[in-house]
Amino acid sequence: MNRSLLLVSVVFLIHLVLLINTRFTLWPEMVVYPYLLNNGFVLYRDIINPYPPLLTSFLALFAKIFGYRPMPYQILTWVVIFAADLSIFLIVKKIFKKSSYALASLLFFVILSIPFGINGLWFDLIQLPFILFAFYYFYKGFKDKKLVFDSLFFAFFVLTIAFFIKQQVIWLIILFLTVAAIKTDKKTVFLLKKPLLLGPFLILSVSYLILFGQKGIANDFLSWTIYFPFVSAAKMPGYVLLPTPRQIIVLLALVTLFIPLFFKRSPETNLILATATALLLFAYPRFDYFHLVPLLAILSIAFGQTIVIFKKSPLVFRLGFFLSLAILVSFSTRHLLTSWHQPIRFFENEIIDSANFLAKITQSSDSIYIQNGPDQIFPLAKRLPPKPWVDEFPWYLEKRDLEQRVIEGIKSQNPRFVVFKPYDVGAKYALGVYRPQKLADYLDQNYQNLLQISDTLMLKVRK
Question: Can you give the pLDDT at residue 187?
Fold first, then answer.
């Protein structure tokens, strides 16, 4: 076996071992949205969802085949992760022409991606292979002038798919359009062809507008997927989540590792740094490490090159490199120790048992409202909420008349049961603490405690 192939296989095996043994996160939206969609709920009208429809629609089809239990989603997540691993290795090999660089970049990404939360199914992860493809084809377009338009077209095509998974890719689209306009020799030709580059984006946008227009929800679609994330979300109570001091230190350590790139200016490193800057915006306005996995992937492409530059750097930069590496090693070690052999997040035994118990003591026709509790119980117990359904997040329920719409839905559909998790104590708009006053008061007045279904969950019945 080729030595390079053997080493790559070993790195892949390391990643698989880490993925199997560290905690997997299956975000509830990944099963709740598809479950409701498959049971007659309409996106943006019955399901309050601020994300574009592409991933939810795909997962709805996926769920029809594999159901709503965690294992198929875990396997799907790993398939996407290994596609990203392979993409990073091949892209580095294509750009820098050295297998050693590619192997170093792959190993760096594999080790750090685990503490950065790659082992979880979320919109950002599904976007990752598309972002890597877009980066490579954008780079290739300017490397080979004969293929510039074809390569740029493909780059913007995959970015269109990524955008309709999650909207923050717009920053990458803007960056690539700006760079293309600056770098293209014949500006007039670029301006004439620019509409063609954005053709897939325009076609898919119009198609969705027509589709949702036929359902009478085009305004809801635009409100939740465009106006809410780009205009109103950051103003909503509880929505902005800034990094903690510890998270800032980890982020600075990651960025510091790649400072040597600023001293080796080349088309490759310039594009990597510019792309990384755009991807940094993915973590705003709600910061979490897993939003930075695309940033980590793009920076990883330059890791082998960074090591070479680092060896020739002044002492102060080498000291900064080692300090940053020590911080990241500590960060990674701590994550491995705390997540090793932990149960699937959001699908722990308590949740599974509660859903099974609820399925036994209720009828399949019973409508159930979940108050401040785990919505993943819906697909697990095969029960439905009243319409419209919305997570009890303050940035949703404090928006216009949405809380009143939920109350009216409960009144008209009159669910027999409420699964209730007592509110925590803390900041008013913190998750688990936030108590939507009108909604909670209505439920308190019309439902009474029936029985405890777990340590944290109470079942209420209509009075």
Answer: 56
- Is 47 a member of any domain? yes
Report the distance separating Cα 283 and Cα 142, nearest Å.
Answer: 29
Handedness of CA 315, 316, 317, 321 (dihedral sign): positive
Model-level pTM?
0.94
Query: Measured over all CA atoms, what is the biggest interatomic distance in the chain, rounded to whole angstroms?
Result: 75
120 neighbors 335 (Cβ within 8 angstroms): no
Q: Residue 188: is its pLDDT beyond 90?
A: no
Res 254: pLDDT: 95
**Strand spans (E) along 43-189:** 120-121
Distances in whole angstroms, Cα of residue 300 to Cα of each of 92, 272, 460:
9, 10, 51
Name the residue with tokens 């990458």.
172
Do 298 and 422 belong to one domain?
A: no
Count: domains in the chain: 2
The dihedral region occupied by 426, where left means phi > 0, alpha psi between -120 and 50, and beta the remainder, is left
Say if residue 163 is in the same domain as residue 292: yes
Instruction: Output the 3-class SS for 355-389.
Output: HHHHHHHCCCCCEEEEECCCCCHHHHHCCECCCCE
User: How many Å is the Cα radius of gyration of the chain?
Assistant: 24
d(CA 444, CA 369): 13
- DSSP label at residue 40: T
Per-residue pLDDT, 239: 94
By residue range, what is the domain housing residue 167? 3-245+278-302
User: Beta partners for 449?
Assistant: 460
